[in-house]
Amino acid sequence: MVHTLRREIPPPRCPHLWLFQFLVLVGLFYISSGLEQVSKAVKEMATLSCGYNISVAELTKCRIYWQKDHKMVMSIISGTVTIWPEYKNRTIPDIDNNLSLVILALNLSDKGTYTCVVQKIDNGSYKREHLISVMLSIRADFPVPNITELKEPSPFNVKRIKCSTAGGFPKPHISWWENGEELNTVNTTISQNPETELYTVSSELEFNVTSNHSLLCLVKYGNSNVSQTFTWKKPTSAPLDNQALSWGWLCFYIVIPVAFVITVVFLCKKLRRWSEARVEMRRPRSIYQGPAEAQEQTV
What we know:
InterPro entries: CD80_C2-set (IPR013162), CD80_IgC (IPR037676), CD80_IgV (IPR042711), Ig-like_dom (IPR007110), Ig-like_dom_sf (IPR036179), Ig-like_fold (IPR013783), Ig_sub (IPR003599), Ig_V-set (IPR013106). This protein is of the alpha+beta class and about 300 residues long. The protein has 3 helices and 17 strands. It has helices spanning about 15-35, 240-280, 290-299; strands spanning about 35-40, 45-50, 60-70, 70-75, 80-85, 90-95, 100-105, 110-120, 125-140, 145-150, 160-170, 175-180, 180-185, 185-190, 200-210, 215-220, 225-230. A hairpin with an 8-residue loop joins strand 10 and strand 11. The termini are far apart. The relative contact order is 0.09.
């Protein structure tokens, strides 16, 4: 019997080559599109560069437009600067610095894609000379979290604490850590104000009070984070107090019922004796019918 050899297709030498090629193409796309990124915090100043230099004398022959998401922000036409109402009194041009757009006291609503267009006059008409887009991302820093002890009733030897912070952006993630390990939390809530877009976050944690703890509350948002540490030291008198409390419960559940039973038995015997005494008093006495002298002697 002759066995024919099956020719198999050899595996590719570089199985991840297609992924590398894809990433290269994506990078080339972003480079060719001229998309730059600027990250700032709320109330900071952002400088968005147009990446194009012209002299003051050339301003009369150029038109420069800055717009955000297809809405006008600022224009420079024949050397005259016009700023749209939403950005007025907090936006200025920096012509000497690559025709930059400078936004003061940033708001969350300022985040988005800004586009700079430079037009030059050519044969009596304006033609596009330069185009660039800048992505502005804005964060609002969360303040250091506040950790408080809750007064709610908890199981024996268990304490509950709460970590909270508010007024940040983007959406945060909150967690509890001890000795490099993440702990299980309870009642974690994240809410956002629809007007300001700012977030509020809180989380609760339960721990055993019979041992020492160093608990870390960590809040991550974007590429930033804030944290707070809660330290707990077990009371030195805690074991004695626990033992005394245990004896107290033992007395309540055993000694008191026994005392109650003894009291009931005592009262029952007392009642029985009282009943017998009453019966004895009601029993009729025998009448003596002999001589009176003998009766008087008897008495």
